[in-house]
């Protein structure tokens, strides 16, 4: 009987220690990504602006090969903040934390489409965002309040 007591005690201690390492049910979890510094956020916006004019290419994720919207975001965040955001717009819609439009900062994400996200871009300040819009187009700078974009359901994410 004594030979079973020590392993049982060790198992109980291990379970207690493991329980301390997890968040209580319902508690907020820390982001998998560190917060961006204000310098990184500005650098992201400046780099995104520098890519305006790059051709659109479905599945593209480099300046030489062209960009689609999520490829542009992944490239800019990877090269300027060392982050690898999700590769699809659907997953980008849950990346980071939600922010209100009046709280937007440079480097935040703009995701369009509501419950079925269809497009995303990088907020660069002054109500403007950089994005790779469509086949045959190029990466461009647009305003959230332009006739087209103001009619689209937008949400905002801060990595």
TrEMBL record:
Domain NlpC/P60 residues, every copy: 38-159
The keyword Signal appears for this protein: yes
Gene3D superfamilies: endopeptidase domain like (from Nostoc punctiforme) (3.90.1720.10)
Superkingdom of the organism of origin: Bacteria
Keywords: Hydrolase, Protease, Signal, Thiol protease
Family (UniProt): Belongs to the peptidase C40 family.
Protein name: Peptidoglycan endopeptidase
């Amino acid at each position: 009987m004594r030979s079973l007591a020590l392993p049982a005690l060790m198992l109980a201690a291990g379970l207690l220690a493991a329980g301390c390492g997890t968040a209580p049910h319902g508690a907020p979890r820390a982001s998998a990504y560190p917060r961006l510094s204000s310098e990184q956020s500005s650098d992201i916006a400046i780099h995104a602006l520098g890519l305006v004019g790059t051709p659109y290419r479905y599945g593209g994720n480099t300046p030489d090969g062209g960009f689609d919207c999520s490829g542009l975001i992944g490239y800019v965040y990877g090269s300027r903040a060392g982050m690898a955001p999700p590769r699809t717009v659907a997953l980008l819609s849950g990346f980071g934390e939600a922010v209100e439009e009046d709280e937007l900062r440079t480097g935040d994400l703009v995701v369009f489409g509501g419950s079925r996200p269809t497009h995303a871009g990088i907020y660069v300040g002054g109500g403007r965002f950089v994005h790779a819009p469509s086949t045959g187009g190029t990466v461009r700078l647009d305003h959230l309040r332009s006739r087209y974009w103001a009619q689209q359901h937008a949400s905002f994410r801060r990595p």
